[in-house]
Structures are given as structure tokens and as C-alpha cells.
Amino acid sequence: MSEFDLITRYFSQKFPKRDDVILGIGDDAALCTIPSDMQLAIAIDTLVEGIHFPNMTRPEDIGYKALAVNLSDMAAMGANPAWMTLVLTCPETNDVWLSKFSQGLRELAEIHNVSLIGGDTTAGPLTITVQITGFIPPNTALTRSGAQVGDGIFVTGTLGDAGLGLAALQKKVVLPHPVQQFVESRLHRPTPRLHEGQALRGIGSSAIDISDGLVADLEHILTASGVGASLQLERLPLSRALRDYLSLESAWNFALGSGDDYELCFTVPPSQEDALKNALSADAYTRIGTIESHHGLRCRDHNGRIFIPKQQGYQHFVKLKVSPRKPRSRSR
Amino acid sequence: MSEFDLITRYFSQKFPKRDDVILGIGDDAALCTIPSDMQLAIAIDTLVEGIHFPNMTRPEDIGYKALAVNLSDMAAMGANPAWMTLVLTCPETNDVWLSKFSQGLRELAEIHNVSLIGGDTTAGPLTITVQITGFIPPNTALTRSGAQVGDGIFVTGTLGDAGLGLAALQKKVVLPHPVQQFVESRLHRPTPRLHEGQALRGIGSSAIDISDGLVADLEHILTASGVGASLQLERLPLSRALRDYLSLESAWNFALGSGDDYELCFTVPPSQEDALKNALSADAYTRIGTIESHHGLRCRDHNGRIFIPKQQGYQHFVKLKVSPRKPRSRSR
User: pTM of this prediction?
Assistant: First the structure.
């Protein structure tokens, strides 16, 4: 089977069809229609083997994660994803690998009704780039720059699971099989918090998805918003995996510093806390701290003492997401 | 200077600012507004060193070409480009290289008022992916599938220059310096035919940009449209470089088979030929053949004899552009 046939087989077909895709894969460009009175949200993220996912990760997990991290960017803006393009660089054409990769990609695409509208393939070290385009009503996007003094700081889900999953794969910790399965699943198949992000439109003052670790990503909000913050460590939402198999201090370090959880970190002004309670169920999020005027981020233990996280979020690769421009129209 | 600073310096700033970009580089996603009653055209193309451009190509030319090939896709649809995202994979962070690369990219972005709204950087073999998004009025896009029997086949510019440029770089031909400069410029800095593509809206029945060679790319139109064609070789538009330094047969082979010219190949029904004359100046395009019902592509010399091109367009990499779906709404 030629590469041409493989791509036709695995990528041209089988992905969700959307009515707003007038012309998909197969021409010089895709053509799409957009709902009136919507803005576009556009994000792009690249995964490189050995850096963004461990060598020997299953191809279906790579496909799943490549889309998940981009959907997570949509979630962090509060946007509804619609279409993706894919650039796949792989060392060789492998029927089995491509089949499984596209299956994992498609699995998540089907959940969120995302069409594959174009892409490119090249030969080289395994690298996957997905660009995603979505919609968002004007003036409702959750940016990084809207946090204000007094806002509560919240996160979705639990933190540090993906980091523990990586540590387990690297044989740094030994876990019972079901626990290892749970944390590996959190590493390989993060859940993009699209429902939560969309529910926060008009309620959250800022948001970011946690890819590099809570401390590193929250600091992007603090820098972009020109504020500081305190976190209360005993409030960090920890899964049973972290609570049962790590010391409290190690669990905090994973929750604060390890990346790849793809939970949302967001801020909400006191005036919107009732709206938050109505928008999301109480078990979907946890308040972990408060925005303060004093710059910098302070993590305090239950005695109010400062805790210095051991493992600060790592800069696996610097993204072109470094110099926020203030949006011209804002929700608040 | 950290990589963070480099990227801020070279990519966050200095690119054209557009009023429709509400939030550019620096958040989880970019936010853009779209004109009412416009459709989106989305294309993505990757350039890999040693495959899509020769090793040792100047970084400013790599930056220029990475955008040019994507703008060429917009041209082939008849779309107006608006925003790009960039994924840059390079072996090391190099201040001089990044500066020159971004300069070349910016040079072409400024000509066509294209904003850089996001991206990603990774370490690895030199690879550049640009995704471009543009606008097009509904039902005016030039697809590959609209050619009909009797339509004229046309190309913009001259063909084979980029191939001769590559041959000169590879020391396969020796050219006087000014001629070498011309053909190298055609290779490294192709001109995306945006004006021509936009002028052909409502006039052309199909279009494609010539990246893999005239024969290979025209065959995409023939396959997508379910038709065949004859070309008259003496009509192929050849630059003085090809006419003066290559035998006629070699010149034909370059014009038919070498890629990277990024001229447009398009078809026009007889009923629209007057409109074509009004839309484009006579020296902007050349009629080279006719769409026929008999499948396949026949190249004939001035005696009407069949000429078999030596160098068929090469499949440098298979793109995800392989299975055209008929557009649901069409210009004709």
C-alpha cells in the first residue's frame, strides 16, 4: 500500500463531518463557513517524541494526546473547537502505526465533533503538529491578563497525576497496577476541560491550561495580569494516587511543578462566585488561592509557612506564547 | 539572550498588525474577527531542509519561502490571506539565524498584510510549518474539481525557472551570474500569485498552484474533475534563462516536470474568456492547452507528435490533499 493510499485510508475519511466544512482534505485549501457573530480562536501545538511524550508511547495515545493538548487550549479560552489540521512527521510509513495513531486522534475528534480539514506529512523524527480553530462569542474569551486583586484562584480536576504517571514509567516510583494505569492514563490521555472552559465565559477573569505545571502556568497569568498570588497548599486537589503513594511534600511538588495535567487554572472575582457555583458542579473545581497585589507567587502550608516547590515547571520548549497583547475588547 | 527573549524579539513584534486580530501571540489561543459573508480558506504546508529547500539555503530565503508556498495555496483558491501561525523546528537557537529567518518571513508578510498570531518552537532537524487562514466570498473559490471539457488551460508566469535554479545550485548546469541569480531567486523566493488568483474568482473553472511540476499538478485537476487534457508544448511560457541555456527538449522537461515555480495552473470555460481578458493583463498568463473528455494528459510538440516528459513531477512528500470532496456550493 502506498503512502498516498494510507493517508487516504486513515486521514481523509472516517473523521467527523461537519456542515460548516464546505471543502475538506483534497484541494489547495479547505473552505469553511463561520457562524455570524462569532469570533475565531486559533491555537497550534507540537508534540515531539521523547520530549512531549515518552519514547514507546502507544501510537493511539500519541494521536489522542496531540489533539487533547490543542483542545485544552480551546478550553482555556472558553472556545468551541471546530476544525483541525495535522502535520505528521514520522521516520517511516508504517501501516499499523498510522492506523492506530489515526484511531486515537479520531476517538477524541468524535467526542468533540472536530473535523480534520487538511495537513501535510513529512519524513523525520516523530513530531505531531495540530492546529485547531474554534468559535467564541465576542468579548467572552478567557485570557491570561484579566486577573485582579481579590479574585479567587481555582483549578479543575486533580493535579500532579500526569507527573506521577511519568515518574512511574521512568521507574522512579512503583505503584500497584490499577494505580499505575490511572496515572498513565492521565499522562497519555488528558481530558480537555472544554465544558468547564465554556461554562466560565463571562464568569472567569482569566484562565490558562496547565501544561508546564501549576506554578509555571499560574505565573503566566500573574505576569500577564500584573498581579501576585498566594496558594494554600492544603487546598491543592490531589487524587488518591498522590495521597496514598507519595509523602505530602512530594505530592505538593508534583501538584505544583509537574506538567501535562491539562487541567484549567482560572480566576474568578468575588462578584462572580455565585455564578461560578451555578455554572459548574462543586466537584468540578477547587479554590486554591487568592490573587494579591504583591507580585510573585507564595505557596503556604497549613501553618502559613512558605513552601518552596522543588520542581518548578520545566520549559520543555519555549512557545511563541510569550508576549501577551491586551485584547481590544474584553469581557471585563 | 534566552530563547524566550529571542522569540519575543523576532516573532512577537514587528509583524503586520491587523484590526481583525483581537488577541495575537501570548495567550492559549489567538482571537480574530471575520468579515460577515466571508468563508474561511485554511491551508498548511511544511518545508524540510534538504527536501523542500537545499541545505545551506539562506535563512532569510527559508523564511520567505515558508510563507510564499502557503500564500500560493491561498492564491490557488482565490482567497485573501489574513493570519498565519508558525511552527519552527531547528537544531539550535541561533540569534543570527533567527533574526534573518524572521526578516525574510516578515518581508513577505508585510507585502500581503499577514499577521503572525501564534506558533510553537521545538528542537530538531530544520523544519518550518506555516498555517495560513484567509477569506473568500462564498461560492467563488477555485477548486481542483471544476474543469470541464472544452475549457482552456492556462498558467501564470514562466515555468521551469525554479528547477533550473536547483540544477544550477547542484552544478548540473553552469550559468552566467545574472542568469543564475534570476533562477535562484525563482527557486528561493517564489511569487505567490495572489492578485491573479483573486482576479480569477467567478472566471476560472479550476485552479492549482504548481509546486510539484506542471504535469503532476495539472493531473490533480484532471483527476478531481474527471477529465483529460492536451498541452501544446510550443506554447509553454519559458523565460530567457530556459530558452538561452537549455535545449528545447530540456526546457520542456523543466517546464513540465520540475516543481517549486508556484505559478498557477487554471482552466477557463470558453464563455469566460472575455472576462479573463478584462481581469488580467495579457502578459500575466498563457494558454497552454485544452481540457478534453479522453482521460489522461497528452503533451504534443509543434508537429502534433506526443512528447513523453523525462522528469515527471516528484512526490517529495505526500500531502493530506488527496481525496477531494466535491464542494457543496460551487461557483459553477
Answer: 0.89
